[in-house]
Amino acid sequence: IATPRQLLTGLMRWARADAPLKDEEPWPTLYQWLAQHPAENSPIDSLRFRVWKALSYANNAKLSPSIAAKLFPNPLPATAAQLEAFATCQFKHFAAYGLKLTERDENDDPTFLDLDNIYHRILERIVEQLIRRKKDFSSLSAQEGQRLVRTYAQQIGESLRGELMLSTARNRYLLSHIEKTLEAVIAHQKALAERGLFRPAHVNLTFGDEQHGLPALQLTTPTGRELQLHGHIDRVDILADEAAFAVMDYRLSQNDLSLGKAEQGLALRLVTYLLVLQAHGEKLAGRKLTPAAAFYVRLLRQIGTVDHPADALDPSSPEFHLKSKPRGIMDARFVQAFDRDLAVGSSQAIQAYLKKDGTFSEKLSDTAAPTEFHALLAMVEERMGALADQILDGEIALNPYKIGTNSPCPKCGLRDVCRFDPGLNRYHYLNIASREQVLEKLRG
Q1: pTM for the full predicted model
Q2: What CA–CA distance (Å, rounded) separates 229 from 244?
Q3: CA atoms in the 13 A half-sphere facing the CB of 38
Q4: Distance between CA atoms of 20 and 31, rounded to whole angstroms?
Q5: Of residues 60, 33, 38, the one with CA closest to residue 49
Q6: Rounded distance, CA 437 to CA 117, Å?
Q7: Are 405 and 226 in contact (CB under 8 A)?
Q8: Which of 252, 307, 384, 432 could be cross-linked to 260 through a Cys-Cys bond (beta carbons 3.0 to 4.6 Å apart)?
Q9: Could you please report the per-residue DSSP string of 144-162?
Q10: Per-residue pLDDT tens for 75-84?
């Protein structure tokens, strides 16, 4: 301690710490000395006047029951993304879904959301046309795929935010890059379709709006209240012979389904789509549908590494387009329907490793036994009900999660509102279970 500021900073940290007192520490004596320090126009007294009030500042957030009931009524309408936001940080959920705060858009450059919309809308129109023609990706030639991508990219570029994607040379380059990327995605989907039996049946399927889609998924919370889930599903593939379905969720970047995060409420969307179609699939197909799989489909590509240039795959070969595998969760009974060529070893089409004894490796596969698969659906349903109860109770604490050294705070656009301070507030520390640990719990 060499300056008044260092003295006051050290004392404030000590006063707020939860650690027990130690006899050899100087802080109790220094604190008592400062409390009895005479009022005078000195640097120490000036700083003391400004910081002493900070001892009673807690930076807590609370809602009264009446206000909570107005912001979040029962039954609670919500999306899976909203429940994930609450599991991420209760105050972030309150700011975004209670106060409905959004970040300012102060530039004319395409945002991440703009690019995401372009990718989704182009793919949606291509699949819609295939369904209308009663075709699938396996019957789509490379030339036809390129033509469709470029046609729809131009149409969407002209309609997005006042021709934003055509306004500058840089934005036009981005649009052309999107076209090339989607041509690779179409080639990937074609290679998958040639190996599998599932076929696209619905795109941009909404739920929670019966006039334009399926009813909301209604869940009863542990306290007897009601949660009504709404949203949309990017794509639904059907295996007609077995009345089974798989859902596809397009993502710009790779996003494996972490079962440990699903258990904590941080990754609910994929499993929610399975629950929706399990409950209301009969309205689509005229008969009850069985959930088979849910996948994230990665849209962006990245440079890979090989030991020698001769080891690189030929870009014209189907194996080249199969490098980027869809990731998620699937019922092990339907693996052959996604890859008819799968023998002992690793599948080239999906994340699955078949061992010599006929079982799948837990570490190298996205598969789950039927009992584990359906137990996962039940676990996520229960978790969503518990999160809904907390929302309805009006919980808005500043408690962002922390997994190891990672937290959502650095990328949060609402930091200027919450003013989270690690010295005052507490992280919600999470231990994310491994895939094997979660499957072991599900078996129980």
Answers
A1: 0.87
A2: 22
A3: 2
A4: 16
A5: 38
A6: 36
A7: no
A8: 432
A9: HHHHHHHHHHHHHHHHTTT
A10: 999 999 999 9
